Amino acid sequence: MAISVFPKVNLRRTFLIARRDYLGYVKTVGFWISFLMPFIGIAVGYAFTQFDVEVSPPRYESILDETGQHKSGILALHEARNRQQFERLITSLEGAMLDAETASSIKETLRTEGAEAAQAAIESKVPSLKGQLKPIENKLNFIEPPAETLDAIKPYLVGEKMITLQGKDRPLDGLLRITQGPDGPVVNYWSKNINANAAKDLTEDYFKALAETQFLATGGLTREGFKAAQKGRLNVESFDPTKVVGEAESQEVTKADRIPYFVAAGLSIFLWLTVFSGAYMLLTSMLEEKLNKLLEMMLASTRFSEIIFGKLLGVAALTLTAMAPYIILGVMGIIAVILHDNSEITQALLASFTPKIIIFFFIFLVLGYIFYGACFIAMGALSQSMQDAQTITTPIVIVLTLCIMVVPIGLNAPDSSLLRIASLFPLSAPFAVIIRLPSDPPLWELILSAVMLALVSLGVIWAAGRVFRYGVLSGSGVGAIQGWFKRVILRRKAS
Predict the structure, then answer these.
(1) Does 292 lie in the same domain as 145?
(2) Is there a single domain that holds both residue 310 and residue 379?
(3) N or C: which end of the chain has fewer CB within 10 A?
(4) Is residue 356 domain-shared with residue 414, that is, in the same domain?
(5) pLDDT tens-digit profile of 46-73?
(6) Would I find Membrane among this entry's keywords (predicted)?
(7) Do 360 and 466 belong to one domain?
(8) Residue 485 pLDDT > 60, yes or no?
């Protein structure tokens, strides 16, 4: 008599089980709280920007320099850093909203006329940013000390006396006091906020630079010469000999060439999160129903195979529903960038989502979920408690954690032989294949990896069905398996 490898499945009963698992979670308040949390976070963040809610309000502090030598240097360093921060903003707009000549002109305006003039220049060149850039306001602002001694300033620090800024009274947030000690300057920082470090860090950086400058001067060297030597370092440019370009282009490696690898890394991590969260929900669902004797009632009218496939289908739908907010926000963000930006980077982002990567992403998403889901179902059937389940699942959780390590390998060494082996190894194949796709691996390797994972998944489903039957009907657990291993494999007699 021929024995069928594939179990018989009634689609209607399978669907009922899937619907039961899906609705069992979706009907809970906690699920909808977690589902709406990303949108609530965006709404709260938008409200903060619209109503000018300050999460970290600006601080107004003073410098009491009793030596008369360091206050101007600290203020100059502070101003230079603020200018560098605004220059980074201009650089980020260069290529996307500003051409190179305009960006250079605005940077010159920043150096000569200040931040407000530079901001006005940006808004005049890019009208869509008008009103979008918040007024330039530093989180750390230095003002003149309200008194000439520490004892006279302390009442302002504790709020007994107020300073007047823009017509409003407020306490002084902090004070840097610089005195001359026997071994050099001594700096004390006074503030009610014991976690405020901005002024302290700025002062430490100033004195570090001052010490370096004084040391260089002892040998007849200057800091300007040291910086000029650093700028003279050789910059090595990268070129890709396999890059197909037009007549007016070169084979130089640009940021746009690296974007597909970061997209693949993001998809691989998303796949890992989806598989892990879905498999864990399968484990808890199976364990809960086993402990409550619900599985025994279901088996009166349902096959083992129908329960397994139903749970896989139901939790898969639940996982996709739970991930839906992040999928929606991600897709909306990509579409918004593509529609409002015609830069080279945007074109590279659009070109990253090729039919090849989309097709294989969904193939390995399904296969990876089935593979690990069946493993967790079997573990849930064998567990007698949540502590028992955590002990059993520890090895596979460690394996899952190790598998995601292929992502940094794929970013740094996409031609690694280890990565190729990982793409053929069923446990890591779902994640390794995705991160390899930007380097255009041979199609036969991708198909071979998918076929091998599909065959192993079928074997895991078959084994999970046997373990499921053994664990549920006989009520056996890990202890029974250990006893079988000692009796059959180690040939030990029961004590």
Answers:
(1) no
(2) yes
(3) N
(4) yes
(5) 665 666 545 567 788 999 989 888 899 9
(6) yes
(7) yes
(8) no
| 21 is a domain residue | no
- Residue showing tokens 């086993």: 290
In SS3 terms, the chain reads as CCCCCCCCCCHHHHHHHHHHHHHHHHCCHHHHHHHHHHHHHHHHHHHHHHCCCCCCCCEEEEEEECCCCCHHHHHHHHHHHHHHHHHHHHHHHECCCECHHHHHHHHHHHHHHCHHHHHHHHHHHCHHHCCCCCCCCCCEEEECCCCCCHHHHHHHHHCCCCEEECCEEECCCEEEEEEEECCEEEEEEECCCCCCCHHHHHHHHHHHHHHHHHHHHHCCCCHHHHHHHHHCCCCCCCECCCCCCCCCCCCECCHHHHHHHHHHHHHHHHHHHHHHHHHHHHHHHHHHHHHCCHHHHHCCCCCHHHHHHHHHHHHHHHHHHHHHHHHHHHHHHHHHHHHHCCCHHHHHHHHHCCHHHHHHHHHHHHHHHHHHHHHHHHHHHHCCCHHHHHHHHHHHHHHHHHHCCHHHHHHHCCCCHHHHHHHHCCCCHHHHHHHHHHHCCCHHHHHHHHHHHHHHHHHHHHHHHHHHHHHHHCCCCHHHHHHHHHHHHCCCCCC
| pLDDT tens digits for range 138-194 | 678 888 999 889 889 888 988 888 988 878 888 888 888 888 888 888 888 888 877
**Residue range 331-379, pLDDT digits in tens:** 787 777 777 666 666 777 777 778 888 888 888 888 888 888 877 777 7
* Two tokens, residue 457: 């998944």
**pLDDT per residue as tens digits for the range 227-254:** 766 665 545 555 555 566 665 566 666 6
Q: How far is CA 448 from the centre of its chain?
A: 31
Q: Measured between alpha carbons, how far is 263 from 306 in angstroms, rounded to an integer?
A: 37
Nearest to 97 by CA among 64, 126, 55: 126
**What confidence tier does 135 reach under pLDDT thresholds 50, 70, 90?**
very low
152 CA to centre of own chain: 48
- For residue 291, the model assigns a pLDDT of 67
**Structure confidence by residue, pLDDT tens digits, 100-115:** 777 788 778 877 777 6
How far is the CA of 32 from the CAs of 20, 29, 270, 323, 328, in angstroms?
17, 5, 21, 12, 16
In a domain, 241, yes or no: no
> The whole model's pTM is what?
0.56
- Whether residue 166 is found in the same domain as residue 262: no
Tokens of 247: 């007549």
